């Protein structure tokens, strides 16, 4: 009954909106079916979010029950994965202090600091990470280090970090784009345009599972080429 009431209310609301209103007012049963589909999709999303929230609370409680450095790191990583970068800072800082030899904690701490725009502390964390393990996270730590350096205006150092990444992995759409931005900041415009063109070409040749992310970097490179 509750679902039926929700569908009727939704159909009524949509029927009074501009543009889509005529679709719901003039199609009778079809409009109700469309409203039912939208209501079902909405409730499915809400249910999934509630289940995910309960799972996170359960995992968080289990990790907080034993306050070891390792568990603090896992707690921070959990919070970070669910978009709570600021809440992740304290447990990740504790993990990095308690297990300084674990590159993962420095990497996750760097991501949390970067997400909260603390660039210098983020760079410090990424540098500790790559000093322990240059290839951590399949080179992502080195890319994030390059990002921090570029955003701090240290373009030459950013290029050196990108060169290390590309030496180990070959260029990617992201690394080519970031190389272009650093070259652009250093007023090396012809080289920057070549790097942006390379980013677009690399995205075009990306494998299917990489295509979505690659397309985003290609779009950024295409825009950046005009500046």
Characterize the largest beta sheet: strand count, sense, and whether it forms a barrel.
Answer: none
Name the assembly state: single chain
Q: Which regions contain 5 or more consecutive residues with pLDDT less than 50? A: none
Listing every helix as H and every strand as E from the N terminus to the C terminus, the arrangement reads HHHHHHHHHHHH
Note the overall shape: globular
Ends: how far apart?
A: 58 Å
CATH architecture of the domain at 58-154: Alpha Horseshoe
Rg to the nearest angstrom? Answer: 24 Å
Overall pLDDT, averaged?
85
Tally of alpha and pi helices:
12
Bin the helical content: over 70%
CATH superfamily of the domain at 58-154: Tetratricopeptide repeat domain
Please indicate the percent range of residues in DSSP E strands (runs of 2 or more).
Answer: under 5%
Structural class, please? Answer: mainly alpha
Would you report the number of β strands? 0
CATH topology of the domain at 58-154: Serine Threonine Protein Phosphatase 5, Tetratricopeptide repeat
Give the CATH class of the domain at 58-154. Answer: Mainly Alpha
């Amino acid at each position: 009954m509750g679902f039926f009431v929700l569908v009727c209310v939704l159909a009524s609301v949509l029927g009074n909106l501009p543009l889509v209103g005529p679709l719901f007012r003039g199609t009778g049963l079809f409009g109700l079916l469309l409203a039912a589909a939208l209501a079902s999709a909405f409730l499915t999303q809400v249910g999934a979010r509630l289940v995910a929230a309960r799972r996170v609370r359960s995992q968080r409680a289990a990790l907080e029950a034993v306050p070891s450095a390792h568990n603090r790191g896992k707690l921070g990583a959990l919070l970070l994965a669910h978009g709570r970068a600021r809440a992740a800072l304290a447990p990740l800082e504790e993990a990095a202090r308690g297990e300084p030899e674990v590159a993962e904690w420095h990497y996750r701490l760097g991501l949390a600091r970067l997400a909260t725009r603390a660039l210098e502390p983020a760079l410090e964390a990424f540098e500790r990470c790559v000093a322990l393990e240059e290839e951590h996270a399949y080179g992502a730590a080195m890319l994030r280090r390059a990002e921090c350096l570029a955003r701090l205006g240290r373009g030459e150092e950013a290029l050196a970090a990108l060169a290390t990444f590309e030496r180990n992995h070959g260029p990617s759409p992201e690394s080519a784009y970031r190389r272009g931005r650093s070259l652009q900041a250093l007023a090396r415009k012809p080289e920057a345009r070549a790097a942006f063109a390379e980013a677009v070409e690399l995205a075009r040749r990306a494998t299917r599972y990489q295509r979505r992310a690659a397309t985003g970097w290609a779009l950024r490179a295409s825009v950046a080429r005009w500046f």
